[in-house]
Amino acid sequence: MIKAAVFDMDGLMIDSEPFWQQAQLEVFPQVGVSLTLQDTINSTGIRIDQIVEMYYRKQPWENKSCSEVCDMILARVIELVKQHKPMMPGLFHALETCQQQGLKIALASSSPMVLIEAALEALELNDVFEAVLSAEDLAYGKPHPEVYLNAAAALDVSPLDCVALEDSFTGLLAAKAAQMKTIVIPEARTREQPRFVIADHNLTSLNTITPELLSAL
Prior knowledge:
Blueprint: E1 4-7, H1 17-27, H2 37-42, H3 48-58, H4 66-84, H5 91-100, E2 104-109, H6 113-122, E3 131-134, H7 146-155, E4 162-166, H8 169-177, E5 181-184, E6 201-202, H9 211-215
Parallel strand pairs: 1-2, 1-4, 2-3, 4-5, 5-6
Helix pairs in contact: 1-4, 3-4, 4-6
């Protein structure tokens, strides 16, 4: 029986993935890194410091540290989130449906806590989640399951009694590794990819989450 719902943030609650892509396409060329939009899409769901480290290993740069490049990208994303307040369709519906089912609710994101806090403030969701967790300071971000396991522990619920809501395959792997039930809502152009078959449900929108669906998990 499902007792808790754990929400990802980027790409699920807020339409921030285009902002991460834009920020990378703006910042990386400043340090001499060549990349494409598809490169940024391929790294969706991976922690930004891991992405920066990956590019540094492939195309090392001088004058700025990896940490400084991370900060530049993050600052641009925060600026765009505050400016646009990009809530995903059906977010309030999904949260209310989980609450009506008596589920505890947590947020578990790969993003740094400063971005999580900025997004929650922009969307006026500061008081919705019983636990808010970032993989920022963990040894490994998603697809490692630690941030999801930590979320379950913070709610005092077994991971086996949690459902994770994700948009990316990287996040889906993390939730599956944590042994949670999974609902995935991928970007439209990737929704039919065979790899998403490992999710318990592959939906088109947060608006399609129902009490019946949650009860049947």
